[in-house]
Amino acid sequence: MSRALARATAVSTNTLATTPVRTRATAITYTRLASRQRPAYQPPTHVRHSSHSPLGASSSTHTRKKVTLPTLAAMHKRKEPITMLTAHDFPSAHAADQAGMDVILVGDSLAMVAMGMDDTSEVVLEEMILHSRSVMRGAKSAFVVADLPMGSYEVSPEQALQSAIRLVKEGRVHAIKLEGGIEMAPQIAKITGAGIPVLAHIGLTPQRQNALGGFRVQGKSTAGALKVLQDAKAVQAAGAFGVVLEAVPAEVAAVVTEKLRIPTIGIGAGSSCSGQVLVQVDMLGYYPPGRFLPKFAKRFGDVWGEATRAIEAYKSEVKGGSYPAPEHTYPMPKEDLAEFERVVDELEKVAGGP
Ligand code: KIV
Question: Which of 80, 122, 158, 246 is catalytic?
Answer without folding.
Answer: 246
